[in-house]
Write a structure and sequence with these properties.
This is Autotransporter outer membrane beta-barrel domain-containing protein. It holds the Pfam family PATR. It comes from Mesorhizobium sanjuanii. This protein is 1% helix and 45% strand. The chain is an all-beta fold and 674 residues long. The strands form 5 sheets. The chain has a 22-stranded mixed sheet, with no helix packed on it. The chain has a 19-stranded mixed sheet, with no helix packed on it. The longest helix is centred in the C-terminal third of the chain and has 10 residues, at 664-673. Mean pLDDT is 93; it is low at 1-29.
């Protein structure tokens, strides 16, 4: 028996034509109802304005053809099913699934202005849906295995706890996930011009998303563990507190993190045409980024604790007030990391490594906070996109940073934690002032190095290498300890003071400027070239002087743990203070002074005649000073040589004060003093 309708004349607003309609189906007015286990069979059902067909209980639309015209509707509730029906939903019409009903294997065309809704625990089954209107999944509804093609101007939305299930969704219009909804394990293709949005607490879950349009994550939404392929025309944006979660993202277009968004633990492959930007307070968090394009940090954005590998053609750029956090930065050959645009003059990163180039501009790069041990085979240099010179390197943390490339940055190198190690000869910047802090180590690892200058209180391990320092002409004090079998060469016009107890055993060469030893280099032999100066009140090894050995009026003693040779043309420069005595030179060996000049200057006034100073003590003194020079016209100086001593006698001579007076006033004063 056919279900009955309250409209039975020829102009009835809807018609049912089927030979096998379930005999218990009923109609009431403009409503046709199927209930129990009734089936619509292959009925042809047309719903016009205010007409509707209802499927209740376990009833099914079977193979029916259902057309909803303006104001018509079809309703599925309880555990009813759309079977394999063909349904066309026109403007202002509705197809509704509630409770545990399902679209099953139906074929649905939703035209412009039409609406399809899934509520409660309803599901999309494996229906094929062509959408030109609006589809809404609400409550706990699921798209299940449906195949949804949503055309331009059409929308598909998920809200509440709804999920896309394992549906295949092709979006040419708008696709939105709101509330706590989820993209499930769906396959989403977001075509050019289309927009897919995640807001609220929604999640992309484990969906596979191919994007040629725009995908946006806002509020507290997350990409979950989704796989997102963002093609060249596509844009993926995270804002608010949104997170990339643990997603995999392959980017050939634009990938943006703004606001307080986070890349979470995502894996990002940024291809050659890809651009990844972080602005506002966004962070890469713990993400892994393989960068073959451009990664750009600006605002207060941070690299967090991410790992960023910059490929051969890749660029990673930090600008404005952005931070490297504790991120691990790695470059491949040809890859660049640029810090030159950082506006506050300093940036921290966890670690750097690889054969690429790191541009500092005039910025101080602080590395080592993640305590990793890494090697930079490439170069750390000034310059970069924003230009600038004087970039500096600060090594912190407990790890070892090994420099093996041709580094040329011109600012200071501050080793304040862990180890800074040379990995090749000449790897340390020759123009940099190296400061080694307490507890830190500068390790030459046997590779000869030239640096601008050396200071600090930490340790230097020369191994078998020679360290040449002083080329920047700075005055510095190194109060730490240097060890190894290598040696030290002092260059430049400045003064370098060694204030610590050093154990290195290679030669110390003073080529230029002044080396002041207030600590000890007892295990090192010393050579002082012409024009250079050795001074101090510490201990040196066997010493040969072609330049100047200077003893200042410090009341101390310069000790030579070995022989001393003051060569022809050399100078022993001595300061005298009548109230403090001379500064003694003690040689634990033979002192050879033949051909050397003694130059004496006085600090203060002599009031006692016949003062004698011991200026040299040795096991044996060979030769005599060639001459004694003084800036004291009224004092006579006389040397007395013992077996192992040299004494200097100072006395007033007969030179009249008036003989050096140049003016009448000076002559009057000189006459009064005579």
């Amino acid at each position: 028996m056919n279900p009955k309708s309250s409209a039975s004349d020829a102009n009835a607003p809807f018609a049912i034509t089927a030979d096998d309609v379930a005999p218990e189906s009923t109609s009431s007015g403009n409503v046709t109802t199927y209930q129990g286990t009734e089936s619509a069979g292959d009925a042809a059902i047309t719903n016009n304005e205010n007409d509707r067909v209802e499927f209740l209980d376990q009833s099914t639309a079977a193979q029916a053809t259902i057309v909803n015209n303006s104001g018509g509707s079809a309703h599925f509730s309880d555990q009813s099913t759309a079977g394999s029906a063909f349904m066309t939903n026109n403007a202002d019409s509705l197809i509704e699934f509630t409770d545990q009903s399902t679209a099953a294997g139906s074929n649905i065309t939703n035209n412009e202005g039409g609406k399809i809704s899934f509520d409660d625990d309803a599901g999309g089954g494996n229906a094929a849906i062509a959408n030109n209107g609006a589809i809404a999944f609400q409550g706990n509804a699921s798209a299940e295995q449906a195949n949804i093609v949503s055309n331009a101007g059409a929308t598909v939305s998920f809200s509440g706890n709804a999920t896309a299930g394992t549906a295949q969704i092709t979006n040419n219009g708008g696709l939105n996930f709101e509330g706590s909804s989820s993209a499930g394990q769906s396959l989403i293709t977001n075509n050019e011009g289309a927009a897919t949005g995640f807001s609220g607490n929604s999640s992309a879950a484990t969906a596979a998303i191919t994007n040629n349009g725009d995908v946006a994550f806002t509020d507290d939404a997350t990409a979950g563990s989704a796989s997102i392929i963002n093609n060249q025309s596509g844009g993926v944006a995270f804002s608010g507190n949104a997170s990339a979660g643990a997603a995999f993202m392959a980017n050939s277009g634009q990938l943006d993190f703004a606001g307080s968004s986070s890349a979470g633990t995502a894996e990002v492959v940024n291809n050659a045409s890809g651009v990844v930007t972080l602005s506002g307070s966004a962070t890469l968090a713990n993400a892994s980024v393989n960068n073959g394009g451009l990664v750009d940090f600006s605002g207060n954005a941070s690299a967090g604790a991410a790992t960023i590998v910059t490929g051969p053609a890749g660029r990673t750029v930090f600008r404005e007030l952005s931070s490297g956090g504790t991120a691990a930065l790695e470059t491949n050959l040809g890859g660049t990391v640029d810090f030159s645009g950082v506006s506050d003059g300093q940036i921290e990163v966890g670690s750097i490594q690889g054969p690429g180039t790191y541009y500092l501009g005039g910025v101080a790069l602080v590395v080592g906070g993640n305590n990793l041990s890494t090697t930079v085979d490439g170069a750390i240099v000034d310059g970069g996109l924003s230009g600038g010179t004087g970039g500096s390197l600060v090594k912190t943390g407990g790890g070892t940073l090994t420099l093996s490339g041709p580094n040329t940055y011109t600012g200071a190198t501050d080793v304040s934690g862990g180890v800074l190690q040379a990995g090749a000869a000449g790897a340390l910047s020759a123009r940099s002032d190296f400061i080694v802090g307490a507890g830190a180590l500068l390790d030459l690892a046997g590779f000869d190095q030239t640096i601008g200058s050396l200071s600090g209180t930490g340790s230097v391990d020369l191994a078998t290498a020679r360290l040449t320092t002083g080329g920047n002409d700075a005055d510095t004090v190194f109060g730490g300890t240097a060890s190894g079998t290598g040696g030290l060469t002092k260059t430049g016009a400045g003064t370098m003071e060694l204030a610590g107890v050093n154990a290195y055993s290679g030669m110390t060469e003073v080529e230029q400027g002044e080396l002041r030893v207030s600590g000890s280099i007892a295990a090192s032999s010393v050579r002082v070239d012409a024009g250079a100066i050795l001074s101090g009140n510490g201990t040196v090894g066997a010493t040969t002087v072609a330049g100047t050995l200077a003893r200042e009026n410090d009341g101390g003693t310069l000790s030579v743990a070995g022989d001393l040779v003051l060569g022809h043309g050399s100078t022993y420069s001595l300061s005298l203070d009548p109230n403090a005595g001379a500064s003694l030179l003690t040689v634990n060996g033979t002192a050879t002074v033949e051909g050397s000049s003694l130059v004496v200057s006085v600090i203060g006034d002599f009031t006692i005649e016949g003062t004698s100073f011991r200026i040299l003590s040795a096991s044996q003194v060979i030769g005599n000073f060639s001459d004694v020079q003084s800036d004291m016209p009224f004092i006579d100086l006389a040397l007395h040589y013992g077996g192992g001593t040299v004494d200097l006698d100072v006395s007033r001579n007969n030179t009249d004060f008036t003989s050096v007076a140049e003016t009448a006033n000076q002559r009057a004063v000189a006459g009064a003093l005579a």
